[in-house]
Each structure stands twice: as C-alpha cells, then as structure tokens.
C-alpha cells in the first residue's frame, strides 16, 4: 500500500534481484512473501528501526547504513542462538535518489549474502529517512534472558567500548588518522553478530543477550527477567583497544555504559564454567549473579563504582 | 537496540500485556520472540509502513491510526488467503506521550484481538511519527498474483471508492454531517480485510490481490505478474454509496483510481465462474483478461475511458 512516486521502480531496480535462499517459496513482489518454515525447532524474530540523525548521521555512506541496519538485527538472532533465514525491509526515504539507493541496496544485499539471509519483502515510503528491518531465523536451542540463576558467572563475549568511543569520530567531532577513522567506521557500522559464540555456549549458558544499549543497561535486563542481581568487576572488563586509543581515561566508562558493540553478555552456572572456559572462545568472566532485587552493582578494584550514565544515547 | 528515553517503560506499560495466542512460545521482551510455526502449509509475511502526514494526519485519533496500520497489513494476509498468526510493531514517536500511547495501544490490541493475531515484538524509537507493522500468517492455499490467464474474468470483492472519497473529510477539507463523518472515518481507518471472500474463492480464483493503490494500478500488477492484459468496464464497477454521496460525479473515477479500500481484485478462469457466482459473495465481475502487453484498458459504456490518475497519492 501507500505507493510513493517510484515505489515499484525502487523495488524492481534495487531489491527484487535479491537472491532467494532456503525456504523462500515466493519472494518480493506479491501481497506477501511465502516461506516454508523449517520442520525442526522454533522461529525467532526481531525488529529494529534506525532513524537518521539518531542512530546514524543522515549523510553517512548508504552502504554502511544498510550494513549496520541488517547487522544489528542479525545480532538479535545471534543472541538467541538462531540461524538467519529471512528478512524484510521498510525503507522510508525523503526522496528517490537512485545513487543513494544503489549504494544502500548493494550494502544490504552484500551483508545478506555474507550471513545467508534472504530479503523476502518490505515496503518503501516517502518520509524522513528511517530503516526498519525484521529478521526471522530458526533455533533449536534458544538462549533466553530469563534463565539465569544465583551464583552464575557473567561473561562478555569480546571487546567492549569500541562503538561508543567511535561515535565522536563518526559524528565528525574528533579528527583521527585515516587508519583509525576506518577502524571507527568498522566498529560503528559493521558490528559482528556473535553467531559462533552463541552456538558454542548454547549447551552451557543459562541466559544471553546482545549488548546494544550498554553492558550495565543490558545486564539489568537479564537481572529483571531472571530475578537476580549482578556484581561486575570493571577491572576485568575486556576494554577494546580502539576505545583505549580514542577515549583514553574514559574507555572504561564507555565499555561499561556505552552501547552498540553487539557483543554478547551471557551467564553460566557454576558447574558449567569449566566447560565454557575450555572452549577457548576468548570470552571474559566479568562478574557474578546473586539473589536480590534485580540490581547491577559495579565495582572497580574493590571500590563501588558509579556509572556516569545508566544507558546510552546515540546522538 | 537504540533505547530512546522510556523505551522499556513504553513496551512494559503499553504493549507487553498483549495476549499471546497460537504458537507464541516467548513474546515481547527478549532479543527475539520465539514462535512455533504451524506444521502445515506455508508462512505468509508482509510489512507496511504508515507515515504521519502522508498516510494519516498527524493529529488523528491514535486508536484509529493503530487500527488502520494493523488492518492494512492484515489485508495483505487476506489477499494471500493466509490466516493471521503474529505481528511486530516498529513505532517511531516524536515524544513519549502516555495519553497518545494508551489510545494507540488500546486500538492496536483491540484490533489484534478481533482478528486473532498476537503482538510478539517490535521496537520503539524517537523520531518523526511512523508505524511499521510486519504480519506473519499461515496459508495452505495461497492466492498469488501470477496465476491469471487469458479469458479469465476480473472481479472486485466489494464497493470501491469509499476511502478515496473520504479523504477530504479526513483531512478536514470537506465538512459533512456527523453521521457521514463517522462513515468516512470508518472507511478510511477501518478497512475490512477480506478473509472470508479470499477463503471462499481460493479453490477457484487464478489470482488475487488487495486494492490498496487503486483498482487500475493494482490490476496492472496482476497483468504484469501474469503476462496478460485487462479490459475493465467501468459501468459495472461497484461504486460505494459513500463515494457517490461524498464525491458525486467524481465517484466513478475514485472507484477506478482511488486507493485504500482494501477490497480484493481477483480473477477466475471461465470454467470456474459459475462456481464463484454460486457462492453468493456479493462480488462483481468487472472485466476480462486477454493476451497482450500487460496493459489495463478502461471502457465506459463502450467508449475508451482515460483514468485521471494512474495511481493514487494520499496527501
């Protein structure tokens, strides 16, 4: 519905050629896509919106915007230990700009191919630039956030703080050498969905989520869902080297409170910790869960540590 | 990801109480919803965006906006002869207005309950008001738009032109009595997904779609997908009585070219026409398909008729 000028041309020229993978009976172009669900397991689905000026600068490289939009959605599937199958795209554009669309669709379909997920439908409308993507995957062993228990160890899957530290560079407020600029753009626009780690820990972890709003804020969701409290020890945090070089003394704060890294935060019961450590995943134990009122307490070298911000605002 | 101020409160207070129906293993609140796909048939999925100032006035009743947003998506399922299962909502709001959200979520969940579809996830972000909904349904006998053939009869499932004729009333450009105002609002905000008609014709129809952009524009999609041409005879169109009373002499044009009615346009092979007519569905034969170059030709009392507009712009 809601044809904007050129809607059908946009779909035909830039998106209808999307390769169609597993389970796609009928792709883009009808009232609905028709999909054959896998016979095993459950479907996992998630939806995220990125708004220009809030989640990315409006003048950013369209291919990078597309990559980020799809990757943050895929990260939700990864955090659930679901493998990607299909996605749909709602693209709202101020104007039909063929050059912008060519770069955007190229970035989108390249990312889709990399992760083996098929674009099966969507909608284009005229309006302020925003991108909503819905992903659907399949999981046989879902990682939920409500299964954590007292005494479980808390883990981070990899370096934290890079995307938050990159933000001033992305926004043009911090000038850095070209190589660092490139690293900052990779950290912000190309987060890595943690599919391999999620699959590896799925037999052992009691809960997991992806760190999109910041470690402290997201760990609080595990605590709320699982009715536990958390103590984390900031000296153990895997602070990203990019965050250290870009943010200096502020890197620790960004690792604890900054968002957009899309690493996993997960918990492991005491009797499974050894099994997880043996996997050699490069994950880091950063704290412990206890009974209580769903609070996250932060410590730094034995002293209570107060987060400068509870969550994270992009712009 | 992308927490806006109050995002979690919005979800908890206004949407997390959504009743969870068939196949919902885990609803709102985790990285993904977990869904058990039906063992039979295929999944059908569609996604539509409504942008304030383009698809509805920004100051419209939030419950009506919500109803329309969900109904136009459900209409895509109906047009595919799919029964609704689940939907997700991406809501972009300029500000967190509890009063607005209460009315919106009430309208949304009421509509969901009416059609037996479960809200299983979504995203709320700060930005210019827009609503993207993705629906997922199940179908055993999908109605596609690429199965029509030469000689098939073209049908409209019910009255056309009401929503287009209602638009000046909705926009406040045409003053009418309260009762007519109410009819106009029903026509525009509460289109009826044609589930019953789709199910009834699914054994006989060769193609179908919902008329969202206007009969002529949407019939052209059947012609393109099925590689046929169409002749429609405008004197046969089921012009809505509301369109006649609101638009007078312009009602026929609105019925042929105006959008947003969400009636079905479908085609029936010659040997199935009698079966369809016997169903007593109140559908109307409006033309015939022939070989050719995917054109829609309009006739009025034997004379060629030129559409004033090919498609339809809301605002």
From TrEMBL, chains A, B:
Domain PurM-like N-terminal: 29-138
UniProt keyword list: ATP-binding, Kinase, Magnesium, Metal-binding, Nucleotide-binding, Thiamine biosynthesis, Transferase
Positions annotated to bind substrate: 55, 260, 312
Binding positions (Mg(2+) 2): 48, 76
Pathway(s) where this gene product acts: Cofactor biosynthesis; thiamine diphosphate biosynthesis; thiamine diphosphate from thiamine phosphate: step 1/1
Organism domain of life: Bacteria
Binding-site residues for Mg(2+) 3, renumbered to this chain: 31, 76, 210
Binding-site list for Mg(2+) 4: 31, 46, 76
Note: Reaction mechanism of ThiL seems to utilize a direct, inline transfer of the gamma-phosphate of ATP to TMP rather than a phosphorylated enzyme intermediate.
Cited function: Catalyzes the ATP-dependent phosphorylation of thiamine-monophosphate (TMP) to form thiamine-pyrophosphate (TPP), the active form of vitamin B1.
Record's protein name: Thiamine-monophosphate kinase
Native source organism of the sequence: Microbulbifer epialgicus
